[in-house]
Amino acid sequence: MSNSSSFCPVPKEQQPINEYQELQSSWFFGWVKLDPGKYITKLLWVGIWSLIVTAPLAAASFPIAKYPIQFGICTIVGSSIFVMLATVRLYLGWIYVKNRLYGESIFYEESGWYDGQTWLKTPEILTRDRLLVSYEIQPILARIKNTFFTLIGATIAVIISWLLIY
């Protein structure tokens, strides 16, 4: 990889392949590369920690002693919103790198916001980057989308149960 990118004028930290590797090894964005059990566990932890915020808010609206079902539903829906926001953030990070890898050119900044340049990828780099997108990033994006739509479906089911209570 380093031989084909050695003539690339794009600073190392702005090269899409390096952005991909950095994202892949990061604490948060690396979650989607974990096996399914660990990935779901991470998202469950987001949900559990978000209960710290959502439970008191739900208790303010629905005292647990008087409205336990409404309290529970409110807490679950509120918590699922935090998990959905986490999945949206995962998606945005990975789609950014996907677009940078898939594009024929790379926009980069040499020393600041005022001196942006565009570099056309060589055919070899473009092919490598697009293969990376096809075999590595597309499955990641599919996993995040499936997670998000599962959360949406579960949240809608909980909201429907709320409507059935009244």
UniProtKB/TrEMBL annotation:
Keywords: Membrane, Transmembrane, Transmembrane helix. InterPro entries: CGLD27-like. The chain crosses the membrane at residues 43-64, 70-92, 148-165. The keyword Transmembrane applies. Pfam families: CGLD27-like (PF06799). Signal peptide: none annotated. This is DUF1230 domain-containing protein. It comes from Chamaesiphon minutus (strain ATCC 27169 / PCC 6605). The lineage of its organism: Bacteria, Bacillati, Cyanobacteriota, Cyanophyceae, Gomontiellales.
